[in-house]
What we know:
The complex is a heterodimer of chains A (254) and B (307).
Chain A: H1 2-15, H2 18-38, H3 45-78, H4 82-86, H5 92-126, H6 133-155, H7 160-174, H8 177-186, H9 191-202, H10 212-216, H11 223-250
Helix pairs in contact in A: 1-5, 2-3, 2-5, 3-5, 3-6, 3-7, 5-6, 5-11, 6-7, 6-11, 8-9
Chain B: E1 2-13, E2 18-30, E3 35-39, H1 46-53, E4 61-66, E5 69-70, E6 80-83, H2 95-105, H3 110-123, H4 139-150, E7 157-161, H5 169-184, E8 188-193, H6 196-202, E9 205-210, E10 213-218, H7 220-225, E11 229-237, H8 241-250, E12 253-257, E13 260-265, H9 268-280, E14 284-292, H10 295-304
Parallel strand pairs in B: 3-8, 3-9, 6-7, 7-8
Antiparallel strand pairs in B: 1-2, 1-4, 4-5, 9-10, 11-13, 11-14, 12-13
Helix pairs in contact in B: 2-3, 2-4, 8-9
Amino acid sequence: MKVYAIAINTFKEVIRDKIFYSLVFFALLLLGASVLLSTLTLGERSKIIEDLSLSGIEIFGVIIAIFVGIGLVGKELEKKTIYIIISKPIKRWQFLLGKYLGLSLVLLSYISVMTVCYMFFLYAYTYKLPWQTLLAVLLIYIELLTVTASAILFSTFSTPTLSASYALALYVIGHMTGDLRRLAEKTGEGGVKAVLNFVYYFLPNLEDFDIKAKTVHAIPVPADYLLMSVSYGLMYVTAILALSVLIFQRRNFK
Amino acid sequence: MIRTEGLKMEFRVGFFRKRVVALKGLTMEVGKGEVFGFLGPNGAGKTTTLKILMGLVHPTGGAAWLMGRPISDSSVKRNVGFLPEQPYFYDYLTASEFMDLSGRLFGMRKREREARAGELLDMVGLSGAKNLQLRKFSKGMQQRIGIAQALINDPELVVLDEPMSGLDPVGRKQVRDIILGLKDNGKTIFFSTHILPDVEVICDRVGILVRGELRAMGTVDELLSGTRVKSVEMTFTGVSGESLSRLERMASGTVTRGSETTATFGDPEAASMAKRLVFESGGEIISLIPHKSSLEDLFMEEVEKRK
């Protein structure tokens, strides 16, 4: 009930913010642009639209997850609205979880609207509905959930600007963990390898969530791969949120 | 209702993590049904104390209890209402939505939330603005919605941080009346302030906190009982010539308006001698007012000590 109250309030907070709408507007603009760009291609028009649209949905989703995510806790601290909440009989973990679920709900709405628009554009121009790309959308959502959790984690102990940089860095590195693994293998034995391996396992492997190219080119994605990726994402989110709660629990609101 | 024992708070600030002591072992008690004014200059540690009681900061030493239960037990907040200093609210919410959110955080049912919100918005005079977003609220309205949200759960204990600061005289009177209303309903009120005239009117007891230490605690009368008469102001008429010059020499200052003269005497003895002189020279006394130390003088004395 209390988590739900915070989540709904967070949902209202984001939905009533102009920044959110400008991001959604640009994301829609990119979808429109993908249709225009597809006319320049020699290959299959639908592939270009699908590829660009899915990437656009992901990138703007990540921007929303990071920049709104760091503000969720950061703004509460900065504006001191948290005083009103924490002084009521609510536990700090309930507050943090509510904030997280609120933004997850916003992202779910965002991704649903974008997907409907994307499918609409595609059908209007190619008379085809590539249902298999919805699997890519599902994993983009799981990726966004992971990025949101990391943005919340950073904002529990850092300033909004630094949190945004950390979360962005984590997103970029998260897409390069494969390279880290290969680098670890090439360095042979020793401390460096151990450190690289640790970083590889510790950071989120966001590349696992990227099946855009596969679905666009109709390469089948095994069900157990999907299941593993979704479970991995949700477990990672749980771990990050648990860590966030541990830090937030000890925090003094000055 | 509130008990603290040796409450200590230290902060580390700045790049070099400089140690700042905000509270140096605060021990105090506030009883049921009391209106307790927590006084002190800016930076005395009042807000820090309130934040510790509300679980917003963790003390570095000592312990505190609300209604007999340790402050770490968050369920104790079920019976507490809190208004922070210069409150900021979710400005994208309307007054009703904000009250509803507050009620939800206490786990209140929908019908109960709606009834209570309506009642409280009415009490603080905001029922006409219930569908207005909080960003459009004036400072006084913000303070009143802040008080309303603090009372949504009909708390036994109401903690208010500087409820009157930044308000105009009308706003201050409204807040004062609300506090007195709560007192009539048997609530315990603990509030911090540096607006002293209000304190004398509404508080049963006060505590004076200076640089993290409790310097004085008791009823306003108790605190002022040891204080002497500072000066006596006498207004008279019908005295002239040599007698008037003598009176003027005895007084520390005189002001003459028409036929009336007001003279101020540094001590009661000088005043009674002057009184005799006025009668002897056939004059008439219009008023005689002894000035005792006020809470403000006591407050200033405590602040100035060991500066």
